[in-house]
Amino acid sequence: MTVTDTPNVAAALETADRGDKVASHLHPDGSWTVEDHPVPTGREEIWRFTPLKRLRGLHADAPFQASATACTWTAPDGVRVEGVDGEQARSLRGISGFVPSDRTSARVMSEVPSTLLVDVPADAEVTEPIVVTLAGSDPEVTEAGHIALRFGAHSRAVVVLVHEGSSSIAQVVEAQVGDGANVSVISIQDWADDAVHLSHQEALVGRDASYRHVAISFGGDLVRMNSNVRYAGPGGSAEMFGLYFADAGQHLEHRLFVDHNAPKTRSNVDYKGALQGQGAHSVWIGDVLIRKVAEGIETYESNRNLVLTDGCQADSVPNLEIETGEIEGAGHASTTGRFDDQQLFYLQARGIPEDEARRLVVHGFFADIVRKIGVPQIEERLMQTIETELEKNVGRPAVTVEEGA
């Protein structure tokens, strides 16, 4: 199957571009044609942080084999969740306005025959989370998948994507958020230590709609996630939160792109990460493009990293690309550092042992993001996972920190 264009893509891009052809230096125009995307060498700006040799060929031409990953879900009454193929699957490619930006995503959109559709009707208020679980069983099987999340106008819903087990998977997740909707998409990467996961998670936010995306990465040998947002009309709001905890040898990479292509839109990006163990590596690349038509917008992006032991590396690169001065506000912040000695001293002076003091500091570091998720069972799971990660830390806080530009 070769996809060249779809009515969804054409309509979304016509709305999004509004005749403004200013391009992001990190996000050039995409293409549906696989051959338009050369195999990356690692020298490209968007690939220079990623260890390509560990991707098992997913960035190139590894075959997409029959899936070894089981997909199960729970769906409240009134919500349609099902696998579709054929013309119905093809009609869902590009519902977020996404046009493939690299070879992997172009191959997923062209070669994967089926799509998992989560369909929330207009005006529905779904009180229970819609949980989709992808459980891998064989990291030697290279595979791919496409998920379409369609939220009707004025709907309210939370979708949780849980990734676990062992897998080597390339993935595109698209969210179409209808006008006036209020929705959340929570993606949890809790893979086994041998998993490789390349994911593009794209959203098109409707007029006066609210979209919240939460990315949580703890497991996996290598996880690289692109989380992107654009707007289908004025008044839309996007919040993008993230947590990650990199252990020895792990590579966790999160790349964010917010395309303010409509006026009176808002965005807020807040990611926090911790690192421990020799060779632990985190990458966070944030980019906000404010187009000429996007007057009256407001945006802020922040990334903070806490280094727990020697031998870690955190690369953090925020970017703002501004094409109009008629905005409410725009800013970014990035920090990478070790434990605050004053916090440790304060806690130890009150009789708290050093190991417990460090544990409390890390819990406090993550707590404000966890509380913003708004799903109690997910929040409890995350705090328990953080506790488990801390039990692996037998070293001391890093004295030196390697930080990206």
UniProtKB/TrEMBL annotation:
Coiled coil: none
InterPro entries (UniProt xref): Fe-S_cluster_assembly_SufBD, SUF_FeS_clus_asmbl_SufBD_core, SUF_FeS_clus_asmbl_SufBD_sf, SUF_FeS_clus_asmbl_SufD
Domain SUF system FeS cluster assembly SufBD core: 141-365
Pfam families: SUFBD_core
Superkingdom of source: Bacteria
GO biological processes: iron-sulfur cluster assembly
Entry's family note: Belongs to the iron-sulfur cluster assembly SufBD family.
Protein's UniProt name: Fe-S cluster assembly protein SufD
Gene designation per UniProt: sufD
